[in-house]
Each structure stands twice: as structure tokens, then as C-alpha cells.
Description:
Layout: E1 6-11, H1 18-26, E2 31-36, H2 41-44, E3 55-58, E4 61-64, H3 66-76, H4 84-108, H5 113-138, H6 153-162, H7 168-175, H8 178-188, H9 191-199
Parallel strand pairs: 1-2
Antiparallel strand pairs: 1-3, 3-4
Amino acid sequence: MAPSNVKLVYFNGRGRAEQIRWILVQGGAxxxxxxxxxxxxxxxxSSTPIGSLPYLESDGQSVATSGAVALYAAREYGLIGCxxxxxxxxxxxxxxxxxxxxxxxxxxxxxxKEKQAEMxxxxxxxxxxxxxKLLAGRLSGGKxxxxxxxxxxxxxxxxxLLEQYKDGPGLEAIKAHKGVYELVQRVTALxxxxxxxxxxxxxxx
Length: 205
């Protein structure tokens, strides 16, 4: 039975919660997208499960940290693979995607503009290509999906990161790997995801 009273709580931005939103959307969940403005965070921080966002409320319980929430949602909505090995591979890809995501966030929030430029240069020349190489390897031989024979959490979390690159070095890096570029097109064309992208709140991050 699908969980009831599902509510995802995060800031009013994509950030660490967008991957979870994509899992919930693709899984057909009935859920509430609760967003907190950055200015309100100090007053609500103490009321959260562990003092950080995102967290998910489900059936009267709260699950915190983006990884725990993503894995929980993927299991609940059939996006964690067909066996334990596929689940482990999906988790592996999630970990690698978070490494790249964390590098981009660190650069984005760096206040020293000169250092920030260096960090973004390293991200686009090292961190992102490292992730793309892994993804390209998983898609070799004309595979449609990163793990198994159907869309999974692995595809959703990676494309939720990559779809933001509409131009510049990010898009160039993706296009250098035909299979990855086609995966981005394939996932963003899924009806549920396509509708979400078209109607989600527009935010800078």
C-alpha cells in the first residue's frame, strides 16, 4: 500500500530536493511540496527532525537527509531496481552524482569571486567529466537506462542534475557523450517529468 500524507520539506529551490521530487513525480506519488523561504529558516530550523533540509513526512514518521529520503521514495514507488544488485548499483550512481553535485554547490556558494571561478573551472574539467564517464560506461552498448531495463532512481537523480545545463561548458561536456545526452532527452520526455519541469516553481537554484 502506498504511503499516505506524504510531504517533502525543503527550501524554495531545486537544490538537494529536486532529485527527490523527480522520484515522487515519476513514481506517481500523492505528495505535498512544502517550501520554506531562506529568510524563514532560522525560525523553523529547531522544529525539523535533525536541523537540516530536506526531510520527508510519511505516515506520521519523518525521514531526514537527501540520501535516506531518496532511497526510501525509490523503494516505495518501484524505482530501486529489480534485485539487490541493481539496488546497489543505483545507490552507487547516486553517491557519484552527489559528489559532482556537492562540488557544484561548493563553487556556487563561494563568496570569493576569483576562487569561485577556479572552483567552477575544476568542476567542469574534473568533477562533471568524472561523473559523465561513469554514466557513459553504464550506457555503453546502446542501453536505454543506467541500471536494468527500465527507468530507475539512478536515471532520475543524474538527469535532475544534468538537465540544468542548457548551454555553455556543462552542455558541451554532456554532448561529448552521446549516450548520456540521449538519456537526458529520454528522461525529460517522460510524461510525468515533462509535466513537472513545465509547471514547477521557477527558481535560480
